[in-house]
# Entry
Amino acid sequence: MNEWAGAKGARTRIFCGVRPTGHLTLGNYLGAMRRWAEVDQYRADALFCVVDLHALTVEHDPARVRRLSRQAATLLLASGLDPQVCTVFVQSQVDAHVRLSYLMECTASDGEMRRMLQYKEKAAREERRGGSVRLSLLTYPALRAADILAYGTHEVPVGEDQAPHVELTRELAVRFNRRYGATFVVPRTVRPPVAARVKDLQDPASAMGKARARTSGVVHVLDEPAAVRRKVLRAVTDGEPDVSYEPERRPGVANLLEVLAACGGGEPQRLAGEYGSCGALKEAAAEAVVEMFRPVRARHAELAADPGQVDAVLRAGAERARGLAEPRVDAAFEAVGLLPRG
Ligand code: AMP
Ligand code: TRP
# Structure
């Protein structure tokens, strides 16, 4: 495995992407954002990217994508990412992603794109809705690989669901390097120790996702405290009045215990012994989530009142990102046989 690009004595580089396809949720916060702010930005040279181009692979509303992109960037900053320490930027403002994506399409095969589970599932869903499937939904993994490879990324801390895409990125990097010479760092997938895999409060069999149509079981970071309480207090449990931590048999109760534990520290198993009823557990979980989000909401409100400041951060972030990505993407263009630019 060749790791020349950017690795010489450099700090570990990590890349994380958030798609602006919905309001960020308690799941995003506990599963990713909090750790990015508390740990990842300090342990590595970290890039946090609002991957807006990825929001265009399914039918989209331009105004909504614009709004959600700004909101996601603002929330990343509100959650504690410090632009003095890490790089926060928007994908579409750095052309290198799209340039490299084309080379990835020229490296990947049609078959391996069609085999991606996420494509099969989403394409089937779009077809059931009677819509047409955008070509970009199929080629999405090429852009995603470009996101990662453009920066000489060493680590991509993502949840389990995303692991196949990082695996494909590794394969494309290895294949490209073998064909055209050492150009890309082959990234590692790291499974970050996740505080919680937060489940939908109305459907504890599935993950709490930001793109869900039904939001009664989805807590958003920017929900009003009253809405957070209402959603948590109405969480589906199982009719048994007492509290025990049995994730298989009692997924709804286990989810609340895991959320409570993740918010305040502690072990779900031990917390189960502290609550006499599911009602009391819900009250405690609701309060813990509201308190955890209070400073984030306050900081978000401050930043949102001054969009010029957020834009300036994003502009500076994009500029740094361009400086990092362009030389490697230029090198890749030359490696495949395209004439040098300058
Ligand atoms: P996504 O919402 O799919 O763009 O994911 C952004 C990040 O949040 C990824 O690192 C996910 O692993 C994480 N994430 C999303 N939903 C959840 C969830 N319900 N529980 C824990 N982590 C999550
Ligand atoms: N695929 C991620 C999602 O579904 C977002 C994403 C795009 C990403 N490119 C990435 C994550 C690169 C990590 C690294 O939300």
Notes: Strands lie at 13-18, 45-50, 87-90, 155-157, 188-190, 199-200, 203-207.
